[in-house]
Amino acid sequence: MPKPAFRLSLILSLAMLGVFIIDQNIKMLFVDGFRYYAECIDLILVYNKGVAFSMFAFLDDYLKYIQLVLVISILGYVLYLKKICYAFPAGLMLGGALSNIYDRFVHGGVVDMVYWHCGFNFAVFNFADVMIDVAVLWILLLNFKEKWCRQ
């Protein structure tokens, strides 16, 4: 059986890589021109220069470097904790974050495409954003239910 540090690194790396690859492939469909309009959800191309709800867009190019420092810090902290139960959700979060940061370097903003407008107008978001949200919820649950995270 592999050592815990190796297992943690492997799970973390595979989750990060998986989310990054899936997200970038979805985004390329929209950058290449795919669009879809429906009653409640439009799939459209939007470049978000900020973070959630376009906050901090005024930071321009500094935002991607600030986010990169945060991602590296989170990665270091997860490796420092050495708890395998955090490896997969942290991988989801970091993979999504790195994919969005990559967009900032390549496209000048995060490629968003899912626009919910059924009953109310919601923000435009992408697969990476969903994975980040799922990961944050998962990590919060692990913190409140310590018995789920013994390693």
Describe what is shown at a glance.
The chain is an alpha+beta fold and 151 residues long. It is 58% helix and 13% strand. The mean pLDDT is 92.
Structure write-up:
- With 151 residues, the chain is an alpha+beta fold.
- It has one domain (4-148).
- Helices cover 58% and strands 13% of the residues.
- The protein has helices at 4-31, 62-81, 87-107, 127-144, and strands spanning 36-37, 41-48, 110-116, 124-125.
- A 4-stranded antiparallel β-sheet has the order 1-2-3-4.
- Helix 1 runs parallel beside helix 3 and helix 3 (87-107) packs antiparallel against helix 4 (127-144).
- It starts with a helix and ends in a 7-residue tail after the last helix.
Can you lay out the helices and strands and say which pair or pack?
Elements lengths: L3 H28 L4 E2 L3 E8 L13 H20 L5 H21 L2 E7 L7 E2 L1 H18 L7
Beta-strand segment tally = 4
Number of helices: 4
Order of helices and strands: HEEHHEEH
Low-confidence blocks of residues: none
Strand content: 5-15%
Radius of gyration: 17 Å
Going by helix content, strand content and strand pairing, the class is: alpha+beta
Amount of helix: 55-70%
